[in-house]
Amino acid sequence: MIQINSLLELISIKAFPRTQCKLALRREKANKVIPGMKYTRTWILVADGGRARILETTGKGQRMQLVAGSQSRLDNPPSHLLSADAPGRVYESVGHSRHAVEPRSDPHTALEALFASQLATMLADHSAKDAFDRLVVVAPPAMLGNLRKMIKPEVRNKIIAEIDKDLTRLPNNEIASHIENVFNF
Prior knowledge:
Layout: H1 7-15, H2 17-31, E1 42-47, E2 51-57, E3 65-66, E4 72-73, H3 79-82, E5 89-91, E6 98-100, H4 107-128, E7 134-138, H5 141-150, H6 153-156, E8 159-163, H7 172-179
Parallel strand pairs: 1-7, 7-8
Antiparallel strand pairs: 1-2, 2-3, 2-4, 5-6
Helix pairs in contact: 1-2, 4-5
């Protein structure tokens, strides 16, 4: 059954009935799900050091949908708020001068690495359930490096593209325009 979405479409169907009916039937066939046919589900992970979301698409011309429960946000305050007190002090071996000792690692960077690890674990869990067939990773270079270290081989085999850009603040439709150049949807 053909659905009429607007008055303009109704008028155009009455004016050009044969052409419009053919177009409507083509649209209906294109959106029809054929039993037994498996669509390739592509997930797009868009992440930075503190935010992440996963979008899903099933092919060319299909809208990107936000995967339910896939938005993550890390409560990551500035580095100076993460340290409890002033850095330690050491005495100079000769003389009476003292120097501050730099911490071995930045707590802010450590939290971002932990966030990357959590994302990699989540992707591995979903991959084990066959929730996606292909994966595109979009992240700034530092986060992309952390994710590369943490992602398990079975998930890595599904990665078809990596884009080193920070697109977390863009709406989904603009993300689609950035990644359609990487592969043919």
